[in-house]
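JOB MANIFEST
job_type = single_chain_structure
chain_count = 1
residues = 144
[input]
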Amino acid sequence: METLNSLSARSLQYFVIAKKWSSDLEFYKIEIKFIRSLLENNYFILQNNGEKDTLKRINNDLMLLDVEKNQLEQALNEQIKQLELMSEDVIPEDATQVAGTQIRLEYMVTDLFSEYKDLKREIFYLVQEASAQNKELGRFAFPN
């Protein structure tokens, strides 16, 4: 991190923010694996509850999020790489280019995580409802 001292305060700030977003993206990847396993583990219950079309749409939405995530990850890695090269004086610092990229990244991060949060809320609700219905059916099938 010592080599980053040659960056302007603004570019250093962009570097720190981009690294934080990159860390958030790593956590997102872990969470999305959990979400997918949750759907997989409850697939038959959800399908039997008449949620077949909903499951198809959710899977499609998850694939679209994967595309957005990949684009964001690539853009973040490129921004971090550019800032590191600037800090090492390999390339000249271009504050205008870095700022423009940072703004684009901010929109990408906001969109991805907002869409993911909405989808996650919907998935959790579906699984919770399916689980409650499954427990109720199990109670009728195996009375005490």
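[summary]
The radius of gyration is 22 Å.
The chain has a mean pLDDT of 89.
exit_status = 0
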